[in-house]
């Protein structure tokens, strides 16, 4: 972890102004690892997009694994353990293999590093490591999720993928990718390769025009994959929650079908008109899993004390559009409305990573006996615009009759330049200015919703001295905590005081925050 952390730079990520941050270095790195030929031989599915690329990759991997192929999946970010980024046959790579491949690559780079070809930066190293792992493990198919953008992403050293996919496009990372959907689409279309078929999902016109233009320049046959019709799942439900997943599933089906055809595996019969799906596809879609996306985890500590309950609803949504989706999922999930809500087509017991993970089933009867209270636990990176995110979340929840009693704002535990569980959480003075900004936006928003006078934005902060709230800054509708453990302890104490209630906490705004919460709650 320390070696890996040494590769994290504070510089901005690759973009046009810095020639993709010396993008051509990647080809030197590949030579150093002797991966040129293995990458050419690899049968790759490459996926970019603003939202849904991780889910699309998870569905794709699950389908092809259920078709009997030896799969490799590279995704980002990780939530708890860096090994989550490298999955072989649907399971995180084991520690022994990870360490062997890690040091083989790291030492090789260290020995050969020069001023011209320095050590690769963090994400580049991880992408190169993925290529090494998949080559050495001789996977039948490698599914690569773009880290950021497309054109200058480290995964884009692939010159001849079997098929490419572009998931939903929206506004994110504008500081790097550009301010219009057209610019963003141009960046993502950077993964298109001459003559390699590509699929996308229905997109806003501005984005679609750019994708089509880039595709025709490269003689790429670009098709729009239709969202999956739930009726072809023969009564089963998608392994990932939320109706937007039907869009991602449709894209995954198109990618898998094309991959099977282009690699000569015609024995798996599937029909173009999608009225029928092969059994392996249905099973793959129903058992796909992704941590931190619409995941429900009860707090084990409070459960063991049986004084009430505290349940975390985690979703790494961090763009305005995904806030709407997240709010809708949360609002339905807390009402136990899964079964009744047909368009969701989802099954509560199946909401997580299969049987090995906690799943929570709260019956209507049981839920109605206890009063329930909703809290929001939120943070977002300072490059995101909370003035866009928070109002979308509040309004979408309100439209389903859900109102948060309090919003809690915390800094992320995962210190920016450290990875792994030992990332320093020492009681150093934490800079909470960003969290206080989020709090100010929230207070104005909630007061506006309640119709109060919003002119007075200088809220009176009470500095709380109560031990369970060390250093918390409280307003009428929110609190800022100096660290996540303090916030979670406050939630636990609140549940203990109320004894009989349900406390339902929506954790969103950042996948890093979701990972930090999972790490603490699953201990």
TrEMBL record:
Cofactor binding, per record: A monovalent cation.
Keyword terms: ATP-binding, Ligase, Magnesium, Metal-binding, Nucleotide-binding, One-carbon metabolism
Keyword Lyase: no
Any GO BP annotation: one-carbon metabolic process
Cofactor(s) of this protein: a monovalent cation
Highest taxon of source: Eukaryota
Role: Catalyzes conversion of folates to polyglutamate derivatives allowing concentration of folate compounds in the cell and the intracellular retention of these cofactors, which are important substrates for most of the folate-dependent enzymes that are involved in one-carbon transfer reactions involved in purine, pyrimidine and amino acid synthesis.
Protein known as: Folylpolyglutamate synthase
Organism: Solanum stoloniferum
Species classification: Eukaryota, Viridiplantae, Streptophyta, Embryophyta, Tracheophyta
